[in-house]
User: Fold these one by one.
Assistant:
Number 1:
Amino acid sequence: MTCTRLFASAAALVCACALNTLPAFAKADDYRFELVGKPQAKASRDIVQVRLVHAPDSKPVPDAVIFESAADMGPMGMPTMTAPVQAMPAKAGVYGFEVEPGMTGTWALHLAAKVQGEPETVRGTITADLVK
Ligand SMILES: [Cu+2]
């Protein structure tokens, strides 16, 4: 079930990339997710902190609603290896996620957000080095 969903979102990402070549339709691509600091490992969990930035003016977006978060080991050639992700309350424009990686290494965190005044869903992926 998780795999199917991941493949679906991977397909969606591919589509988003294709649309990227058409600037007129790429408004949601004006945003990017950025890693804030280094992930903090605590027991078997890692806290990953992320900021959403409106790229054209480098302004952080503090009031986005991140409604989807999924982690996988795609950056290390293991896209089917997933990890539980739990969103934490946003603090001063920083969105926190608690990831429970089954393996130490580089993970991808896929995010989808609603931004005020932006009709399209904003999607992005960040990579982070996590410790089991
Ligand atoms: Cu792995």
Number 2:
Amino acid sequence: MKSIKVKSPFSGIQVDYMQESDLPAVMEIERSSFTAPWDESSFREGIRSRNHHVYFLVIRHQQNPVAFINFWVVEEDAHIANFAVAPNYRNQGVGKYLFAESLISIRKLGGDHVSLEVRVSNIPAQYLYRQFGFQVVSIRENYYMDDHEDAYVFRLSNLREVDLCIDRGTHTHDR
Ligand SMILES: CC(C)(COP(=O)(O)OP(=O)(O)OC[C@H]1O[C@@H](n2cnc3c(N)ncnc32)[C@H](O)[C@@H]1OP(=O)(O)O)[C@@H](O)C(=O)NCCC(=O)NCCS
């Protein structure tokens, strides 16, 4: 069984469902993270639709959104569709923490097989996914519409067998 321990990066950090009031900060993160960002209506409609298969989570630090993730879960299958950390919060454990919290949520919702696409050039994200046991299962050629870069499809096929432990009481950094 794969065992992963993750610590909360700072005190004053909170994982929550995304609210419409988070959207200005979320859109700033989205636009600074991707060359072909989602538009605001995709987030707004996702939040409003209350589709019980689709989830948008944020991390707030001192009440301000600093990272978000979007995933869906249908029976045992889950897919992570969007995930980003604000540039000035990267490399401090925020992404790893939110990803771990999301996998725990996915597991509670019944998900066991989790997939996602990532640019072949996105080494930081791939490093993070591999730490959780994700592996490349295929390549989608010309997947990204803006520059035709290929995507790796990463998959974790047995989330229930991953021993995920989040320590929310001690912190890797303090800000
Ligand atoms: C990918 C991303 C979410 C990672 O978030 P983060 O908060 O910076 O990541 P963390 O600090 O939690 O680091 C997680 C792991 O990735 C590794 N990592 C982070 N940045 C890295 C880099 N530049 N190069 C190599 N590894 C890196 C770290 O080593 C860390 O593992 P460790 O602490 O156990 O060594 C963030 O870089 C980001 O938002 N990028 C732009 C959007 C994006 O690419 N989203 C994913 C689309 S598929």
